[in-house]
Design a protein that fits this description.
The complex is a heterodimer of chains A (about 220) and B (about 270).
Chain A (H helix, E strand, L loop, with lengths): L14 H11 L5 H4 L11 E2 L13 H8 L7 H13 L13 H9 L18 H4 L19 H5 L3 H12 L21 H12 L15
Chain B lengths: L2 H13 L14 H8 L5 H13 L30 E3 L4 E3 L1 H11 L6 H5 L11 H11 L13 H14 L10 H5 L5 E2 L2 E2 L6 H7 L5 E3 L4 E3 L1 H11 L4 E2 L4 H14 L8 E3 L1
Parallel strand pairs in B: 5-8
Antiparallel strand pairs in B: 1-2, 3-4, 5-6
Helix pairs in contact in B: 3-6, 7-11, 9-11, 10-11
The chains are: A mainly alpha (about 220), B mainly alpha (about 270).
């Protein structure tokens, strides 16, 4: 059972009875019993703030399934459905070129802001990669929710399958790992195509700090 | 008041960043903060402001909040915070400390709290709101006691269950849920340690430290603030102060933390 439904109302079904109890408590007129109990919705707990509207509470199928199976294995049929939908939605670079500017990619990887209620929507979104991944050896302030991407391009080379795999991962990680905790940077429109290319260059360019050896320890 | 103990606890929590991190302790900026504050937690000052507010008649009715029932009887604040949120028969709702305070300001003191309800937290560099100071003072009256958030009333159990469900709810452009950041042990974002809040052990390290003085903000922040600020990081719209989701989440965390020692107001990064 999923507690939250999509659509314009976010009905917390279980709540109906508790609200009735509340009405009985303050001794309201019998009309409370005669009419259906008011729906308490998820949206009642939130208010639009900055660029974050209430539409953000509406879940797509992937979000619903992954909420329900958080920390548990996703049943095969649902997993297959999520993978298929994710893979079908990937858009590869129109000009066939995967790479932009790694220096800009570095900025994107280090920028944690974007799409929060207090962020300026006029500024480009960050990718926040360092929140979850180790990348360049010189950057010690990295998070550990994802695996290390140190030496990413150096270890993997630049074959077409590797480039396509990585692009797909960035676009929609659920194409490989249903219910991945990694944001759908391309699919959800967090990063633009040129930004994704910059991040790709940061991962693969031999001159990018991601692929440089760790600095020698201080004498 | 055991300041030293409460400080030590906050410090251990913050240095909890270290396990597995490639960051030497001397590079941890918190070491500098520690030097700055010595043994003092600035929350103590806010606690004192709260105490003064508690004892001062206010609102159009010019009465104190001594008639406010936080669950243990009118005016009883010793140990009350450790047992919140809880169900209140007079409103028919599960309420946390902050919603109960606003309720009493309104009903007992006759205050118009609509502005405070809309803007419950102080801006950086501005004086703390009445709600923040009173929360710090009342929370401190539970220091050293075990967290004991009740699960007797059906609505209290409902709040816990709904809180647990919301904890896993993925939504918004980043697909984040609370679980994205708080469901694994020993993880961190950048250098900030992430408590594993869907386990008893994790919830116990966190719940009893709120409200806390946040060094980065120079202010005491309440647990409602913590919920709203994590909802912001989750890319959700504004989490309404005192809303059902906020109270469900606090109930979920509190019940898991039952038995842990209250050390609030804590001291944080």
């Amino acid at each position: 059972m999923t507690a939250y439904r999509t659509g314009s109302r976010f009905l917390l079904a279980a709540l109906g009875s508790s609200l009735l109890a509340a009405c009985a408590n303050i001794g309201e007129a019998p009309k409370a019993a005669a009419t259906a109990p008011p729906e308490t919705t998820l949206a009642d707990s939130f208010e639009p703030l900055g660029q974050a509207g209430l539409d953000r509470l509406q879940q797509n199928t992937m979000q619903k399934v992954c909420s329900e199976y958080e920390g548990k294995p996703v049943p095969d049929d649902l997993a297959k459905q999520i993978i298929a939908e994710a893979a079908a939605g990937v858009r590869y670079p129109a000009d066939g070129n995967y790479f932009g500017d790694w220096k800009n990619g570095e900025k994107i990887a280090k920028t944690g802001t974007g799409l929060q209620s207090n962020d300026d929507p006029a500024l480009p979104n960050g990718g926040n990669c360092y929140a979850c991944h180790q990348m360049a050896a010189e950057e010690l302030a990295y998070g550990t929710l994802g695996l290390s991407l140190a030496q990413y391009g150096k270890l993997r080379g630049q074959s077409e399958p590797i480039l396509q795999y990585t692009w797909t991962r960035l676009w929609n990680a659920h194409a490989y790992n249903p219910c991945s905790h990694m944001p759908r940077f391309g699919d959800a429109g967090i990063l633009s195509e040129p930004q994704l290319k910059d991040v790709m260059a940061y991962l693969f360019d031999p001159a990018s700090p991601v692929n440089l050896p760790a600095p020698a320890p201080a004498p | 008041m055991n300041l030293r103990a409460s400080f030590g606890f906050g410090l251990a929590l913050l240095l909890g960043v270290a396990p597995g991190a490639a960051v030497a302790e001397e590079e941890n900026p918190f070491a500098e903060y520690r030097a700055m504050f010595g043994d003092d937690n600035p929350a103590e000052l806010v606690e004192m402001q709260g105490e003064e507010l508690w004892n001062t008649p206010g609102g159009p009715k010019q009465v104190t909040l001594a008639g406010c029932d936080f669950g243990l009887g009118a005016g009883v604040i010793a140990g009350a915070y450790a047992q919140l949120p809880r169900y209140f028969a007079d409103t028919g709702k599960v309420m946390d400390l902050e919603t109960r305070l606003l309720h009493c300001m309104e009903t007992l003191q006759g205050m118009d709290v609509s502005a405070l309800r809309k803007k419950p937290y102080s801006d950086q560099g501005q004086p703390q709101t009445e709600l923040e100071s009173l929360s710090a003072y009342i929370a401190a009256q539970s220091r050293g006691m075990p967290v004991a958030v009740p699960q007797t009333h059906p609505l209290e159990r409902q709040a816990f269950a709904d809180g647990a469900k919301f904890f896993n709810l993925r939504a918004g452009p980043h697909d984040f849920s609370c679980a994205t950041c708080h469901s694994q042990n020993g993880k961190r974002i950048r250098l900030q340690a992430l408590p594993q809040l869907n386990t008893v052990e994790g919830a116990r390290t966190s719940f009893g430290t709120w409200p806390a003085y946040r060094i980065a903000q120079g202010a005491v922040r309440t647990i409602e603030w913590r919920m709203a600020d994590c909802a912001r990081q989750q890319r959700l719209p504004g989490l309404v102060h005192g809303s059902k989701v906020a109270i469900d989440l606090i109930t979920y965390l509190g019940v898991q933390a039952n038995g842990a020692e209250m050390t609030a107001p804590g001291l944080k990064r």
